[in-house]
Amino acid sequence: MIEYIGYFCASLAIASSLIGLFSVVTFRSHIKHWARKKPATYPALTVISPQRGEIDSDNIDAVLGQNYPGVWEVIFVTTKDDASLPQLKRYSQKHKNVKIAIAEDVVELATTKGIHRCQKNNNLLTAIQAASPQTEVYAIVDADARPFSDWLSCLVSPFTDANPRLGVVTSARIYLPGNGLSSLVQVLWILISAMFLVGKRRYIWGGGLAIPKKVFENANLARQINGQGGRSITTDDMNIYNALRSQGYKSLFVPDCIVLRHPPKHKESLFNVIGFTNRQVLQTWWTTKSIWVLMCNIGIRLPMLLCALVIAWWYPWCLLALLSIVIDIFMGIFALKTVIDAEPRLSAKLIFWIMKSNGNRVGRLTQPEIRIHVNFWIVLLPIITPFVVTLNTLTVPFVRKMDWSGIAYTRRKVLGYTGDFSWRAQ
C-alpha cells in the first residue's frame, strides 16, 4: 500500500511541474505571436505614480524620460507627511507636465470619516480627480518601477485599434537580483508570476497598466477601489480586473512593456521576502481564489516530492519524483529566456552561460544592455522557492491581517500604523 502512496505523490509532483511548464509555453506563444504596432496618433494621457517614502531618482527620471509622442502629464501622488514630498516638489518646479497631488492618510481617513481603503487606492483616486479634463487614458506605474523610455508609447498603442472591449493593457515586471539567496527567490517568484499575465485565468499588474478614461467611468472602476461594496480594500489590480471581466472587457499583456525593478541598496532578508510573497498570495485569497488555486498547484509540489523521496527508501521507483526538480530548473531557465526574447535589451549570465535575446531589435529603441547576473545560489532555487510557495498557500486561509508600507489592514478595514514610520518625513 505504501508504495502506491509514494507513486501517487511522485506523480502529483511531476504533474504540478508540467502544469507550470505549460504556463511558460503559453506565455512564450503569446510573445511569439505578438505584432508590434506604431499608431499614427496617440491619445492624451495621465501617468499616475503613487509614492511612499524616500524616492529613487533613477526611477523618477525613467518615468519623466518617456519618449511619448502624444500629450501627457505625470501626477506624483503622496501624503502631506511623506518623505517623498519635498523631492517631488522639485520635479514639479522643473517639469511643466508634472503635478503633485496630496492624498489623505488612510489611517486618519478611517479614524475621522469611517472610510476604509488602502493608501495606494486612496492615492489613485486622488490623482484621478487631479487629472487633466483632456485625458483619454490613465497609466499607472509603481514607485519602484524603472521602465524603458518607449514603455509608455508601447503600453498605450493597443488602444488606438478602436476595440471598445479592450479594458486594460498591462506590463510585466522583472526584478533584477541583488545580493544573496533571498533576492534570487524574489526574482524567481516575480518571473514565474509573470506567466499568469496570459491564459484563461490571467491577472493584471497594478504597477504598470493603462485604462481608457471612458472604460474607467463606464465600468465604475472608482467604486472597485474606494473601499465600498464589500470587496477587499487592499488591492487595486485584482478588483479592477474582476470588475472588467464581469462586464465583458478584455485585458491584454504587451510583451514590449517589460518593466524593471532594480534591487534596493540594502540586502533583502528571507524573512522580508516571505512577507512580500505572503502579502501577494493573501491578495489572491481575498479577491480571486481561482488564482490562489493555481498557486496551490505549485504549493503541493514540495510536500509531494518530499513524501515520495521518503518512501523511495523502500521503493526506489519513487525517485522518479526528482523529475519534478529537473522540470522546474528547465522551466525557470525557459521563463527567463522567454522574457529576454521579449525584451532584447535584457541579457542574463547564469554562472558561466550568457543568455541573449533572439528577438528582433527593429523598431525598438536602442539603450545600454542590462545584464541579469545569477550566481551559484541558483542551484538552491528549485527547493527554496517551492518552500516559500507552500508556506504561503497553506497559511493564508488563516491570516487575518496584512502589513503594507507601514499600515496594517484586514480584508475590509484599516487597523492603524504598524510602527514602521520609515516612509515619514523626518
Task: Please give the structural blueprint.
Layout: H1 2-32, E1 45-50, H2 57-64, E2 72-79, H3 85-94, E3 98-103, H4 106-113, H5 119-130, E4 137-141, H6 151-156, E5 166-175, H7 181-193, E6 208-212, H8 213-218, H9 221-225, H10 237-246, E7 250-261, H11 270-287, H12 289-299, H13 301-311, H14 323-342, E8 346-350, E9 353-355, E10 370-374, H15 381-395, E11 402-404, E12 407-409, E13 414-417
Parallel strand pairs: 1-2, 1-4, 2-3, 5-7, 8-10
Antiparallel strand pairs: 4-6, 5-6, 8-9, 11-12, 12-13
Report on the architecture of this protein:
This protein has 426 residues and is α/β, with parallel strands linked by helices. It has a single domain (2-36, 43-417), classed as Spore Coat Polysaccharide Biosynthesis Protein SpsA, Chain A, CATH 3.90.550. The chain is 43% helix and 18% strand. The protein has helices spanning 2-32, 57-64, 85-94, 106-113, 119-130, 151-156, 181-193, 213-218, 221-225, 237-246, 270-287, 289-299, 301-311, 323-342, 381-395; strands at residues 45-50, 72-79, 98-103, 137-141, 166-175, 208-212, 250-261, 346-350, 353-355, 370-374, 402-404, 407-409, 414-417. Helix 1 runs antiparallel to helix 13 (301-311), helix 7 (181-193) packs parallel to helix 11 and helix 11 (270-287) packs across helix 12. The mean pLDDT is 89.
Topology order in helix (H) and strand (E) letters: HEHEHEHHEHEHEHHHEHHHHEEEHEEE
What CATH architecture do you see? Alpha-Beta Complex
**Number of separate strands:** 13
Sheet bearing the most strands, described? 7 strands, mixed
What is the count of DSSP helices, taking H or I runs of 4+ residues?
15
